[in-house]
Structure formats: C-alpha cells, structure tokens
Design a protein that fits this description.
Strand order of the largest sheet: 4-3-5-6-7-8-9-10
Bound molecules: 2,5-anhydro-1,6-di-O-phosphono-D-mannitol, magnesium ion
Largest sheet: 8 strands, mixed
CATH topology of the largest domain: Fructose-1,6-Bisphosphatase, Chain A, domain 1
Helix content: 25-40%
CATH superfamily of the largest domain: Fructose-1,6-Bisphosphatase, subunit A, domain 1
Strand content: 15-25%
Order of helices and strands: HHEEHEEEEEEEEEHEHEHEEH
CATH architecture of the largest domain: 2-Layer Sandwich
Length: 314
C-alpha cells in the first residue's frame, strides 16, 4: 500500500488539523498543476493587468492560483485566515473565523518562468493563532517567528508534481501518481547531504552584493568546489539543494538591501524544511527561524543549505 499524505500529516500533536490542511494543499496542487498544463490553450498565460502589494506585475496564473489555494483552505474547516504574497491584507475565512490555524502562502512562486515553460512552485506554512477564538483573526496572528511554525512545505510543478512537507518530524516528499490520483510517498526522510551538490544564486548581481559577500563567496567556491545551477525559481532551486546538497542564496544587494525573498512566504517555510532536513537556514547573523516578523510582506536575505557551505557565507 502506498504511504499517503495523511500518514505523515497526522504525526505530532496537531495531527487532527494537519491532515485536512495537508489534504487541502494536495487538492490545490492538483488543480494548479492542471491549470498550468492547459494555460496556453485557455488564454491564461501573461499579465493579469494588476500589481501585487510589492509593485510586481501579477500574472493571470498568480491570481488564479491564489483563488484556488484560498478556496481549498476554506474547504478544510480548520483555517481561519490565509496570508498570501498576492494579497495586501490577510484574507479572513468568515465561515471558520474561530478555527485555530492560519496558513501563509506564495501560491505560484517563480512565475517569471511561466513564459518559458519552466518549473514553478507553491510555498506554504501553518501557524496557530495567537488571538482568542472568539476574536477576529488579525495580521498580528501571522507575525510569528519560524520557531512557531507547525507545518510547512512546497509543491514543485515539474515533470512530475511533488509535494514536499514537514510537520516537524523530518521532511517527506510525495509525488502525484496520475494512476491513483493521489500523492504517494516517494522520498521519505529527506536529508540534505553535507558535502557535494551545487551553489545556486543570481551571480549577475555579484558586483552589487552587500555584507562583504563577494569575498566570502569566492572563498566558498574555492573551498567546496561546488558546481553551479540556477533556475530562478526558488522551489526548483531549493528542491535540488535539499536532494543534492550545496547552498541556495538570495543575498542583500544595493538595489535590494533586504534581498528579494519574503520572510513569511518564502524564507520561513523553506528555512523550516532545511533545518528539518539537517541543514542550515541563515539570514543576517541569525537563523531565518529566529527573526521576529514585523510585516506581512517583509523581505530578508537568505542562505539555505548544507551547514558547511552556509557557514562560509555568513
Ligand atoms: P516571485 O515570488 O515574484 O515569483 O519571485 C521570487 C522568485 C524566486 O522563485 C526566485 O528565487 C527569485 O525570484 C529569482 O529572482 P531573480 O530573477 O532576481 O534571480
Ligand atoms: Mg515568490
């Protein structure tokens, strides 16, 4: 019998809620994968005409994926609100505003890859609310350090659709099996290799990097002899880093003094997975998981991967 999402999600003290939430993520992933496959035929590629809160142009598929994810979280009955990279404000789920959990999501990360049929992903994390159940959930409920995360994961829309997740008991990878129409465990207990692998960074920004990174980076390359891979889609780049080892970074540069990636939607969930897989997740001077968030759309520099490579860069 294949091992399904429920068997991993039910581990730990929040299992009863994580089962429907992880199933909801799985349903959203299936729908988004289907949408991506047929997008060119439905006129769903290209810009939506609007900008998200960070002033970035939204793709039609960003908007549609966001709607799918929110609707699937609503259907779980366990989620009171969703914070999304595509929405300026917290989306409260009115029917379940007294539920215990909030989900943070980047519904379609790496969407600049869509025009070239490159891999994209969904990134998510789950936290428990801080406000009392009879109060309306607020943005303050989402502003929790990564140490409070209960579950996190990503979906990679590649040749196969994979859901990689953790409820704090290791990292497990599931692959969508079109024959059974289920996610089945294919990569149990993923551990990031300490040696080997690749470095993954937009090296075109090297002359703008801050934090004396250029020297440390040159040293890291000499010492480790790592090869280089960069898709420009965080989920694809992190999936390879988790499986093969090495380091993924999006550092600060003078154009992006806090880096590009968002603390709540990208850095914390990926940092949680990296630490669960035995690696290291650093920002400026501390673990990504120890940063106290100050805003929904805050950005931070990130260095994620095998401990030895990360240590040489921070
Ligand atoms: P997005 O959330 O707007 O898609 O941007 C995030 C993406 C990441 O997937 C990727 O790591 C990064 O942007 C690549 O940025 P760059 O093109 O500057 O290298
Ligand atoms: Mg993103």
């Amino acid at each position: 019998m294949p091992v399904t999402l429920n068997s991993i999600a039910q581990q730990g003290e929040n299992g009863k809620a994580m089962m429907p939430i992880m199933q909801g993520v799985g349903r959203a992933a299936t729908e988004i994968a289907y949408l991506l496959r047929g997008a060119v035929f439905r006129g769903a590629l290209g810009a939506a005409g609007g900008e998200n809160v960070q002033g970035e142009q939204q793709q039609k598929l960003d908007v549609l994926s966001d709607e799918i994810f929110l609707s699937e979280m609503r259907s779980t009955g366990f989620v009171c609100a969703v914070g999304s990279e595509e929405q300026e404000d917290l989306q409260v789920i009115e029917e379940y505003a007294d539920a215990d959990f909030l989900v943070l999501v980047d519904p379609l990360d790496g969407s600049s890859n869509l025009d070239v049929d490159g891999p994209v992903g969904t990134i998510f994390s789950v936290v428990r609310r801080k406000t009392l159940k009879d109060q309306r959930p607020t943005e303050a409920d989402t502003l929790q350090a990564g140490r409070n995360v209960i579950a996190a994961g990503y979906v990679l829309y590649g040749p196969a659709t994979m859901l990689v997740c953790s409820v704090g008991q290791g990292v497990h990878g599931f692959t969508y099996n079109p024959n059974s129409a289920r996610f089945e465990l294919s990569h149990p207990d993923m551990r990031i290799p300490e040696k080997g692998g690749y470095y993954s960074v937009n090296e075109a920004n090297a002359d703008k990097w801050l934090d004396q990174l250029a020297e440390k980076f040159a040293h890291m390359k000499r010492e480790t002899g790592l090869g280089m891979r960069y898709v420009g889609s965080m989920v694809a780049d992190m999936h390879r880093t988790l499986l093969k080892g090495g380091v993924f970074l999006y550092p600060a540069d003078w154009k992006n003094p806090n880096g590009k990636l968002r603390l709540l939607y990208e850095a914390i969930p990926m940092g949680f997975l990296v630490e669960q897989a035995g690696g290291k997740a650093m920002s400026r001077g501390c673990s990504v998981l120890d940063i106290e968030p100050e805003g929904l759309h805050q950005r931070v520099p990130v260095y994620l991967g095998s401990s030895s490579a990360v240590d040489m860069l921070v």
